[in-house]
Amino acid sequence: MLLMRGIEQRAMNLYRQGRVPGSFYDGFGQEAVSAGATFAMAAEDRICALHRDLAAHVVRGTEPERILAQYMGRATGITRGRDGNVHFGDKERGLVGMVSMLPDMMLVATGMAMAFKLRGEARAALTFFGDGSTSRGDFHEALNWAAVQRLPVIFVLENNQYAYSTPTALQFAVDPVERARSYGMTGETVDGNDAEAMFEVTRAARERAVAGGGPTLIEAVTMRMHGHAAHDDMRYVPPELLAAWRERDPIDLQERRLAALAEPLDSAALRAEVQAEIDAATELALAAPMPDPATALDGLFAEEAVPLGDGRAPWSGFDA
Amino acid sequence: MTSSRTDAAPAAQLVDVAMPQMGVSVTEGTVVEWKLAIGDPVVAEETICEITTDKIDTELPAPASGVLREIVVQVGETVEVGTVLARIATGEVGETAAVEPAPNRRYSPVVSRIAAEHHIDLARVIGTGRDGRVRKQDVLAVIGDTPAPASDPPLHIESPYIPEPAAAAPAPPDDGATLSRMRRQIGAHMKRSLETAATCTTWMEVDMGRVEAARKQARIGDLIGITALPIVARATVEALHDFPAMNATLDGERYEQHRRIHLGIAVSLGREGGLIVPVVRDAQELSAEGLAARIRDLAQRARANRLQPDEVHGGTFTITNPGQHGAIMATPVINQPQVAILDLEAIVKRPIVVTDDDGNDMISIRPQTILGLSWDHRALDGVQAAQFLAAIRRRLERWEH
Amino acid sequence: MPEKTYLQAISDGLREEMRADERVFLMGEDIGAFGGAFKVTDGFLDEFGETRVMDTPLAESGIVGTAVGAAVVGMRPVCEMQFSDFVACGFDQLVNVAGKMHYRQGLAVPITVRLPSGGGFSGGPFHSQNPEAWFMHSPGIKVVAPSTPEDAKGLLIKGIRDPNPVVYLEHKNLYRRIKGEVPDGAYETDFSARVARAGDDLVVIAYGAMVHTALAATTPEQLDGATVEVLDLRSLVPLDEEAILASVRKCSKVVVLDEANATCAAGAQVAALIAERGFEDLDGPVVRVAAPDVPIPFSPPLEQAVLPGVDRVKEACRDLLAY
Is the N-terminal amide bond of B337 cis, ω within 30° of 0? Predict the structure, then answer.
């Protein structure tokens, strides 16, 4: 969570310094969702992360310098400058990069789970998506499909209260998690700012999925503390709502919890360590070359098909 | 000349500019420079180009007034005396506007290109196209060049067909000698196990209602048409993950727990008797469906005598499932050097006391089975066996379907 | 070689690849017990079982999207859209997810999407379309359209083995109408054009069902002895530019024929290519014959008025030959 926040804060500074082309999206305040959920997944599981889920990449092992290089359109970024900001996924680490059409990746994750089931493998797929995207048809197609075929897939709905500027009240009349039962799957609501709760609910969903119990819809209730993207001043969000959620910052919450342990964590040392890593990564990323314009046409078609590789699974208990 | 061309330029006549004979012995000359370009107005006697011969360099005066219509010989080209170097259209003196070709004098790109390559005056070519348009075949007819016949395209039926490989010869049938040798081997193996291990057996009753429901509600890619064995196997694999002491080998004094679960499945070889224990490697990576497929495949190949040698070695735990003949309990013999073996017998309906949500006891008809675990008291204790069986039971009784 | 229908050849190709490669499986609506709306997968359920011949929910976006997911973890899904028209519902997944995946993150998406396409049988506006140009305009997707049974099998096998998204247009009007010799076993047909008939005076460039229309319209007897070449493109992405230019060089007069709506059709791309790179070889304007820009109407006289037929092609050729 600290790495995610640190990388995104650094990227926002780089954006303001004119080093990041295009736009920039972050997941400030939502770090616990992707961090907690990804820690519960096994190395051989597969994940589709969204633009508020940088921790998923970090947990799976994607290097901070490649993430920063990605933001800056450098040749060493994960997509080698072909796509921007958080539109990436390290294929070596079992991550599929998102597209802007949401929630398209729900179907991709469903398809990965379908392959696991067809091949009889004890693996699961997980995808994140937001409250706004529940209005689109792919949300329905994915939930229905996954339930009909009882697929080992976990749908993590990040309810961060706003789709760009549209509040959830204009998005749906029934909370999406309530629809889980009508599709024929388990639905769980969880505090998306509590990393440990995210971990536990995802871990249970994964065990259910791998045991043949089918998909789970997890609604992680959280708050988008920044604008939709860097240009957005969020004037449409009531200040008191932001103030209330600021009290519930996921990193502060976890820090208090760790400080209360019998052997308290030295959070200052941890923060310093993370900051040093980000500083080093920034230097590397800034020193990296921009892509050669002559390569703009390269790689449209594949010469061979190499499936996704495994990611890191440091604390899941499901490491390969 | 076609009438249409004449119609388009009624006053035009072409006058040739030829390479002059600049001395008795001179037979050829070279164009050094053109002083006018195509379309330029020409005044008679004005210099039109410079030429050189082996005798003399000189300027060539225009033979007539008009417009320079065509340059046939380019700078640097050497041609015989008398060769046409250029053509002047007379009757258009000073009228540059007349140089604009009439609409039907436009030539298609391919006609223009061929004409330029062969120094053909298209104005003299008879057109057979619409309104006398000069077509490609017209200009080709002038140069006497008919298109080369196209080479035959490759025949569409010449595909890279690769014959399918011939079917493999069937495996030779077992003879009696093989079977009796197998029986001897089984016997020696079992006897050695009983002599080596301190074998104890623990039993536990399990309600298989949810497992049976899962089998009946099988959907796509599911456990269609299979027995409870792969579900029990999956539950066992999960329990082994939590009880690594069971997923172990004891060889003399050397006791070793294994992280990877290589699950032996005892397979009866059918009517002639005999038993073989193929191994599902890395069973922890397989779902119940995956285990079902692997067990089915191994069993079929075991019965066809087509197992590879490494498919019957290296197990870390074994399950035996002697079949559907109604037996309810057994005391399996541990597959050395493993430390435990699980026995699955028939699932039978029994009256069972169950407790409802309000705490009321009642008799219910439930599909029950008795799981038997033989374990080696040298490596394990009874409480571990009971906890392990309970872990399997918990998973089976809560099986999601 | 056995003679088979176009339809049987497609079934053959699917069956060969499913037998040879267990990663290959089929997804579609009503393809299992019913054998597909056009019976392409008739009998497949019995041979391969329901995990490999998957009756899916009625969800085209779901079919393409889950196929992408399965493909990136090592499978080779072959999707059937019941009619090519319905691919509009799966367009986003095909164009935005599948087509851009390898360019963006180097991840191959080996999926094949079969599109029963084309009109000529009163299918009306929603069962007659030829949507190939949508995908030609979307980078990262290969587009093929066989006209013969032999190519139908070979292009399908090649497409399934290709590590990229491949849109495979099978023309409904050829299914049982066109027969031809089809080799046994598995073979690949290159994504390149073929000369369906050689000629010198004019070339008709076509693909799919229009190849047969072109052949029928351009025999020498109908055109005062002129010999007309018919070039069957077979593949639209990649487009066999050299084969097109070679035919133009030889014949110098070109009719480009599409069954699809004219504007921005595959033939428009062919005409642009000739204008750019074949200009010096032309002996007349590039003439296009295509459906006008209206939905394909239902009633037979209206449909015949819209779809290019033998007479229209013959007239266009006659006119250009006389030019």
Answer: yes
